[in-house]
Specification:
six-stranded mixed β-sheet, 453 residues, alpha/beta, globular, single chain, 17 helices
């Protein structure tokens, strides 16, 4: 009888273990674990105070010794110190007259006789080639006036204060070889042969696309999801820590530190070195892949960012959602929108990751490398889902579904709520995004509203 009981117990625990593992991977697929950061009531500081603390960190520009177990390894500490030396910005002399006349802004010519939406600039291509490092070249880049913001971002990263309580910055990739693939139920004809990867620009359909990359790996593609950066949660206040100790009876734990540089960063950096313009089917090298990203009109994206940053699904634990609602939630969508535009002007877009300009997100996620990125408009998300064998109608996050956002004035907010002054102020804040999109051939609501140099 005892023997049966022991064996039964062993089977019981094995079943529990299998259920736990399956649940873990389901959470990863739904992007739940990617966005978990801790209890919402950990942080009770005003948004302005959070910005002040981040600005102080940028001014200090120091990097504390790693505290996370993954970062305490001696070899990773050396990598961090080496990387820090490499990333130290060096002042550049002003370009001489005529020096930028022949500046190389990047090759944007399409392939001949290749039909693909990824063949940017061709009849079938629905994307535009973009070279982040060239756009932000300190001497001759179209966006050189924004280099100081890149340096601010590097300082926040080095001080482990960048995008606290935000989701990990991921880099999914997939190598699709038709002979190894299961049928694509959402796309007629055979799978195309190509290697793809994506830089996740927030509030541009990225969560649906990241999930689609995970799904295509289950259909025969080869690849993985890399992590460029894993930010720490916003540290709990002293009052919140005391309350947690009283409620749980457990001693307080030292807050986790943001994971910077180290093995994940290096693996992502090596992978990005293989980013190339689109290839013909028989010309893909083992390390080659075409990196793409999706962008959106700044005025539309900002409204979506408001709904997300104020605590929508996936951001309920971002540590600032309640403060944003307390500061800016008004009786009408227009007055609420006006408050958020003012907040971006008087504070900064560093308040929450979803407010970050797209130019900065792309540069960070590509580790400031001189590589091409295929940029698609937001309207192309359904076609990109088709290419990855996913339902083109799926939306992992839809801000206009009742209950998704925290208040009806957020759910009902549209671009029609901007007045002329609000739109002008918003476009001034996101001038770099408007310039970048104009540079690659896309139009925005900011054209004619603000002047471009």
């Amino acid at each position: 009888m005892t023997r049966r009981t022991v064996r039964g117990s062993g089977t019981y625990f094995c079943v529990l273990t299998i259920i736990a593992v399956v649940a873990f991977y389901i959470c990863m697929e739904l992007n739940v674990l990617d966005t978990y950061a801790g209890p919402q009531d950990w942080e009770t500081k005003p948004a302005a105070q959070i910005v002040e603390e981040k600005e102080a960190a940028m001014s200090a520009g120091t990097v504390s010794e790693p505290e996370d177990k993954q970062e305490t390894k001696e070899e990773e500490t050396k990598e961090e110190e080496t990387k820090e030396e490499k990333e130290e910005p060096k002042p550049k002399a002003e370009p001489k007259e005529g020096q930028c006349n022949n500046f190389d802004h990047g090759d944007v010519t399409p392939l001949e006789d290749v039909t693909s939406i990824f063949n940017c600039g061709s009849e079938s291509g629905t994307c535009h080639w973009y070279y982040p490092s060239k756009f932000l070249d300190e001497s001759c880049g179209v966006g050189k006036e924004f280099v100081s913001q890149i340096n601010d971002m590097k300082k926040l990263y080095d001080s482990k204060q960048l995008w606290l309580s935000g989701p990990p910055i991921v880099l999914p990739g997939a190598s699709i070889k038709p002979a190894l693939m299961r049928p694509n139920q959402f796309r007629a004809g055979p799978w195309p042969r190509h290697n793809l990867s994506m830089t996740h620009v927030h509030k541009t359909g990225g969560t649906s696309l990241v999930t689609a990359f995970g799904s295509v790996l289950g259909k025969g593609a080869k690849g993985k999801r890399l992590t460029v950066y894993f930010p720490a949660p916003i540290p709990p206040t002293e009052e919140a820590q005391i309350k947690m100790e009283e409620n749980t009876g457990r001693p307080r734990r030292k807050p986790r530190s943001s994971i910077i540089y180290g093995s994940n960063w290096n693996e992502s950096s090596t992978f990005l070195d293989g980013a190339v313009k689109y290839r013909k089917p028989d010309e893909w090298g083992e390390r080659d892949h075409t990196l793409f990203g999706v962008v959106r009109d700044p005025a539309e994206r900002f409204i979506s960012a408001i709904g997300q940053a104020t605590g929508a699904f996936g951001s309920t634990a971002n540590g600032i959602g309640k403060q944003l609602l307390n500061e800016c939630l008004r009786e009408t969508s227009r007055d609420t929108l006006r408050c958020f535009v003012d907040l971006m002007q008087t504070n900064s877009t560093w308040i929450e990751v979803h407010f970050t300009p797209m130019v900065l997100e792309i540069s960070f996620a590509t580790i400031y490398k001189d590589i091409p990125v295929a940029i698609f408009p937001f309207t192309e998300v359904p076609n990109l889902l088709l290419e990855l064998g996913s339902n083109p109608s799926q939306k992992k996050k839809d801000g206009h579904v009742a209950g998704y956002r925290k208040a009806s004035v957020l759910t009902n907010m549209t671009v029609a709520d901007y007045d002329d002054d609000m739109l002008k102020n918003l476009c001034t804040v996101y001038k770099m995004d408007a310039m970048f999109m104009k540079h690659i051939g896309m139009t925005t609501r900011c054209e004619g509203v603000i002047e471009f140099d």
